[in-house]
From TrEMBL:
Protein name per the record: BMP family ABC transporter substrate-binding protein
Organism listed in the record: Virgisporangium aliadipatigenens
Membrane topology recorded in Swiss-Prot or TrEMBL: Lipid-anchor
Encoding gene, per UniProt annotation: bmpA_2
Main location: membrane
Keyword Membrane carried by entry: yes
Amino acid sequence: MRQARGMQLLAVASAAVLLLGVSACGGGDDDSGTGDGKTKVKVGLAFDIGGRGDKSFNDAAAAGLDKAKQELDVEVKDLAANATESENDKYERLKLLCTSGYNPVIAVGFVYAGADPATGPVAKAAKECPDTKFAIIDSVVPGSNVASLVFAEEQGSFLVGAAAALKTTSGTVGFVGGCDTPLIKKFEAGFKAGAAAAKAGTKVLAQYISTPADKCSGFNDPAKGQTVAEGMYDQGADIVYQAAGGSGSGVFKAAKAKGKLAIGVDSDQYNTADAAVKDVIITSMLKRVDVAVYDFVKSVSNNTFAAGTLTFDLKKEGVGYSTSGGKVDDIKPKLDEYKQQIIDGKVTVPTAPTS
């Protein structure tokens, strides 16, 4: 354990040297000048477990960051997370970015809120860097320099739950969550509500890969994702919806091996998953983390930043469902009808499972 902790601290120290060196030396992609006398905005982003390449949640954040770099002409720096790190490690990553001149700083994932959002990694870093603007994805953290960017995941999940019920031939579908937390419960709640609304009596199996006690390792464990999904398919499910980050690739592998279907999450995973399994993905619940990241950076860039909570829902097109692959084209009118009913307030989607 001491050796592992030492390696973590060494990694943080090495990153500090790199970041501070970049800040001091300038030049190349990290040149802070714009050529017109203005200082270029330098954006720092701290990923959740899995980082770039998870083809889901983190990659959606990365897409927003990359778009900001291209369209807003800002500098960017992103840092990866460690699956075994502590809250203090997360705080140190955020503090490293702000003290190295990155402003704003974006924390990707509820893990950066900590056990107590009022004193956790983001709140602590924001307090110690009062001139730096922070954003956190998927949690609400107090602070006059903190923007909390949250989503109505239950609304998007309702739509893919309806799709699953309308497409199932066995009458049984499944839900795999990466970690048993209130946030992921929102996905389950919406999925179950949508399935019940579209076809009464549809059976929904639900299981979580991990808990906060093991640092939510289920967001980055494809093997366990595959095992859990295989169990659901063996119990009669013919479609499984996963809200499990990098573990979702294992769910897709299970669907392919069993000759069944699956539903993606966060990104349009028909377009991001490995080619060998993309044909099992009938739709994905879109969670526009890319939009949230880009809009936040833009607000800082044009001096319209506002602290507080901003919710991305169906009305704001912050969540939705994908149609890539054409497998839900025949039921799209029904799904869009449900979407409008939610927007109009005729359907209220629960945020916690009822059973």
